[in-house]
Amino acid sequence: MSKHHIVIIGGGAAGFFAALSAKKHHPLAQVSILEKSSKLLAKVKVSGGGRCNVTHACDDNKQLAGYYPRGENYLKKAFDQFNVQSTIDWFAERGIPMKTYPDGCLFPESNDSQTIIDCFINEANKRGIHILMNQGIKKIEAVKNGFKLHADQKVFDATRVIVTTGGQPKRSNFDWLEQLGHVITEPLPSLFTFNMPENPVRELMGTVVEKASVRVEGTKLLGQGPLLITHWGMSGPAVLLLSAWGARILAEKGYHFHVLVNWLHEMKEADLRQEIDTNAHLHGAKMVQNLNPFPITNRLWHFLLSKAEIPSEIRWHELGKKNTNKLVNILLNDRYEVKGKTTFKEEFVTAGGVAMTNIDIRNMESKRVPGLHFAGEILDIDGITGGFNFQAAWTTGFIAGKNCLD
């Protein structure tokens, strides 16, 4: 029996994947998972509305890395070891086929995150991986031939350690790693929705525009895709994309800024004016409010007409130059004030963490502390919405587990 004891700190997605990889590649080693709470795989449980967005359909590693606002250059190399196809194959080998949706997101065919959780726990039990709950580590001490891990009431001995404690919203949560010499990039929320207090657009909660473009005024930040109006403001992929790519810029603004919404996605002004002229010619006698020729709901159409102060009884042939200009502007450059954000509770994603300059991407080992490895969102790596953050967890977890004893 090997004397090696590989300890994974954190019982989330990256933690389990690292543990299973470690046991596969080093079968004689003892492998343990220490979880600080009484719940395992909490983020997996709630991901994708309880369905678990396992990964994203992208077979080009370079393109795949481009979906990460932070960590792109490092992941290009990491995906050479374990990528999307590797993930699909890994689950297929364990009897869990994936289904690909039109937006590229991959979910288990069961459409139930519990399928993924059961798979991980069953695999861990089958391979003799020890899982200990309520064991929060406060300090890592490097000693001869390994480490001592100080929990609240116990000290664990380890030959190798893989830290997979996930994204941390507070800088102080990194103190124990900073004390070991690691550079910490300030943690900030990455995927969040835009709050628009008191704005009447919130009365349209539940309204979805399948293709919209949202731009942060005064910046080059642009998000495109489905847009959802909620009771607090705006959400959906278009907004979440903006929040991911603009995480640091929006934080510097104190989450107080303006967005310009193109409700017609990428339609140009000349094309829109042509369409308005066509409707005036073909349907001139119809009231504008009763004929909505655009791919938005009638509720939103009426809201925008009112916001643009276009008379409710006006007919298409009566629009004239002034009202046409109003209509063009409201459809292509609708302006909203954002004051604050809302993050998903268990699903929050952070930008920041252990700086990648501290990590050898080939084995996920710390350059500051030999024998200490990292995986998952504890690192300064984060992706946009759509399964990318889990893919980073699988990839970095696999690499850390495989190489932790090399």
Which features characterize this protein?
13 helices; alpha+beta; 406 residues; seven-stranded antiparallel beta sheet; FAD/NAD(P)-binding domain; 2 domains
Report what the structure shows:
- Helix content is 32%, strand content 25%.
- With 406 residues, it is an alpha+beta fold.
- It folds into two domains: 243 residues, FAD/NAD(P)-binding domain; 152 residues, no CATH class.
- The strands form six sheets. It has a seven-stranded antiparallel β-sheet. Strands 6-2-1-10-22 form a five-stranded parallel β-sheet, with helices on one face.
- The chain is elongated, with a radius of gyration of 25 Å.
- The two termini are 18 Å apart.
How does the SSE layout of this entry go?
Layout lengths: L4 E5 L3 H13 L4 E5 L7 H9 L4 E2 L4 H5 L6 H7 L5 H9 L5 E3 L4 E4 L4 H14 L3 E3 L4 E7 L2 E6 L3 E4 L1 E4 L11 H4 L5 E6 L2 E4 L12 E9 L5 E8 L3 E3 L1 H9 L1 H6 L3 E7 L6 H14 L15 H10 L12 H13 L1 E6 L1 E3 L6 E5 L4 E2 L4 E2 L5 E3 L13 H16 L3
Helix pairs in contact: 1-6, 1-13, 2-6
